[in-house]
Structures are given as C-alpha cells and as structure tokens.
C-alpha cells in the first residue's frame, strides 16, 4: 500500500493535472491539457470497496503521458459510508463526467478505456456491462475497451467472508452487482490480467468472465507477480502488462 502511494506521488511530479469534483466526489486528471484530445485510461482503485483512494492510484500516469495518453483516477465514497450500489453509481457517474466535460480538460470522450484492480476490477466490470448507459445520458459504447486486474466478477462469495461485515449484501443483492451474471451484449476488446501468484479464486473468476465475454476477451497471466504488485507493472513502459494496455488503447 505504501508503494502505491509513493509511486503515484513520484509519477505525477511535473505532469499537467487537475482535481475536479464530479457528483460530490473527486477525480484527478493527469497528463492532459486544454486544447488536446488525448485518449483516456480510467483507473479504479481496489481495497475491497472500503480502502485506498485516488492518491494511491496514479502510478501509471507518467508512463502513459509519455505515450500521449491521459490518466483519470476517480475517488468513490468508501463502504460502509456508501453501499456498493452507490459506489457503482458513482464510478458510472465518473465516466459520464468524462464524456460530457472531459473535452475541456484535453480528454477525448470517444476514446475511454477503463481498468482497475481487485475491487476496482469488479467496478471495471460494472462499467463494461449493458443497461446503465441510458440512465447517465451516455452512448452505449462510451467505454471502448477494458483491462481489469484480478477482478471480482461474481461477488456472491463475498457474502460468506469478513468483507460482508462492511459491505452487507445478501445473495440477491450480490447477484445484481455481479458482472458475470449481467448482460454483455456489446463485446469490445478486454484484457483480463491476473498474477501468477494470485489467489486461485481470482484466477478462476477471470477465466469464467473470459468465457462470459467471449472471443473479444484475452486472459493474461503475469508470472512472478501477486495480487498486490501485478498492477504496478503499469508504471513501467517495458512490461508485458504495460505493452498490452498501450495496444488496447491504440486499438480504439
């Protein structure tokens, strides 16, 4: 956790950046300036929906900036102050903000790619599925591609863990918030990343979601990484994960 914060601070030194309010929460825009139209990577932090923040989540900003790509890192209200339904609503609102307002900050609303780690991978999945876009006034294809890391795509098992002491979901509520169980009609390019030393449950969740998403989904297993450090490979330009993200963004 300390590395996330330290590397994020180091990555944004000297980069153009703005912190703005969306829907009563904040997001940071890094590596873009008015007059540009840069593709956008939106990163959603993990922490089982109840820890971490945008301040721990910008470690990829410099590497992406060097390739002409902006980074947007939203905060969301953490549980138990917010329900998981509200957290999902907030991250969807962040995408709607980028689509409506991002152009004034140098972002290209037509090239939004989303990603996140662990619980952030779950939230990424909730941005990938169909059915929410009309409520927020955005096109069905507002998200063009995605890269979830060690994502939770069927969260029903959470109801049997200590996490549920804070999240407080029943099985029906968990099913309604599980991307694996929700419609995925528009299948855009996705890279599902897991670590070679990830927990077996996380690997199985990504394999199942790959099957659910179909041929547009690629599973990338990163050797010699674990659940917590695999996402830090985005901070360097010469890793397989970073190269895969650049390829994904340039494909949209």
UniProtKB/TrEMBL annotation:
GO terms for molecular function: hydrolase activity. Keywords: Hydrolase. The keyword Hydrolase applies. Transmembrane segments: none annotated. Residues 36-135 form the BD-FAE-like domain. SUPFAM superfamilies: alpha/beta-Hydrolases. InterPro entries: AB_hydrolase_fold, BD-FAE-like_dom, GDXG_lipolytic_enzyme. PANTHER family: AB HYDROLASE SUPERFAMILY PROTEIN C4A8.06C (PTHR48081), KYNURENINE FORMAMIDASE (PTHR48081:SF33). This is Alpha/beta hydrolase. It comes from Actinomadura decatromicini.
């Amino acid at each position: 956790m300390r590395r996330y914060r330290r590397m994020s601070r180091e990555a944004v030194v000297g980069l153009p950046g703005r912190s703005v309010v969306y829907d009563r929460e904040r997001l940071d825009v890094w590596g873009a300036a008015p007059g540009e139209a840069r593709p956008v990577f939106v990163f959603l932090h993990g922490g089982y929906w109840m820890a971490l923040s945008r301040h721990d989540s910008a470690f990829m900003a410099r590497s992406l900036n060097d390739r002409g790509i902006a980074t947007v890192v939203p905060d969301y209200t953490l549980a138990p102050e917010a329900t998981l339904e509200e957290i999902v609503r907030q991250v969807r609102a962040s995408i709607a903000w980028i689509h409506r307002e991002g152009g004034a900050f140098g972002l290209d609303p037509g090239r939004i790619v989303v990603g996140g780690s662990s619980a952030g991978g779950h939230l990424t999945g909730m941005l990938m599925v169909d059915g929410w876009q009309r409520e927020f006034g955005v096109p069905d294809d507002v998200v063009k591609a995605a890269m979830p890391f060690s994502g939770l795509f069927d969260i029903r098992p959470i109801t049997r863990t200590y996490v549920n002491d804070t999240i407080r979901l029943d099985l029906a509520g968990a099913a309604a918030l599980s991307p694996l169980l929700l419609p995925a009609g528009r299948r855009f390019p996705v890279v599902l990343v897991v670590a070679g030393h990830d927990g077996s449950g996380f690997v199985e969740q990504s394999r199942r979601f790959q099957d659910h998403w179909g041929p547009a989904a690629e599973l990338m297993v990163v050797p010699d990484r674990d659940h917590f450090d695999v996402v830090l490979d985005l901070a360097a330009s010469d890793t397989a994960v970073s190269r895969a993200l650049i390829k994904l963004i340039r494909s949209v």
